[in-house]
Design goal:
51% helix; 11 strands; six-stranded parallel sheet; alpha/beta
Amino acid sequence: MKIGVVGTGEMGLAMAGHMLEKGFEVSAFDVSDERLAAAEARGIASKRSLDELARSADVFVLVVATDQQVIDVCEELAVKAADDALIVVAATISPETMRDLGPHLKAKGKRLVDAPVVYGAAGARSGTLLSLCGGTEEDVERVRPALMSYSRDVVHVGPLGAGQIAKSCNNLLHWIHCVANFETLLIAKRYGIDAQRMREILLACPGTNGTLARWDSTRFTWQEKDMDVTLELAQKAGLMLPLAGQVDQIIKTLKADDVKALLYGPEATYLGRTVRPLAPSEGGLA
């Protein structure tokens, strides 16, 4: 299996590196010369154009940022890649985009799998991502060995777009947990209990969640995009998700530095208000 990786940012570079280490022939393309140089430094063959990459692989893993980037890359691969080439979209995009691309690529003799990943940059570095796949069972099984090189598991969720919906479900829970965790630890901090100590205690309680366990590494980079996809799914399906709507508004105000201040600083900021521990005379704990 010859693999072409499109996008060698933090995620794509790490994933490509794991595939190379597992014995696959890996080449890569990125619009950034700096990112391509980083790929070359890891022993990954760099290609100076998407056209050149298209002629060097039969499986393509797309680790790009937006729906339009996925569409543009797929359009070029549809024309320039070999017949029966398989395109894996590891990016997080709209399920509708995936469903629209499927028939178009099939007409050009190409196959398509959506395989967005969870566990973020830390999972990419350690090779313990979880790949959530949509597409035919045959196509998912064809690329399973490559995906397993950077994944703890490869899960076939359903037809094209199902992987993206599964990723949206995970993202919604993640951002809900971020808001819930912040408000929970804010109570502890306000009453003079060390928030990081409270976090450690909660990790042993039934109310814990995976986000709380990994909260130090949450970067608050994609929350707006993630929630936009979730709410669009809900709107198109006629679903009322009032909690998701509230989280959509709140999560846009939070940053990684806010979590750091809450856990380790003398005070925290939430929804524009500064929160400090109460003095005993104000009702705080002595």
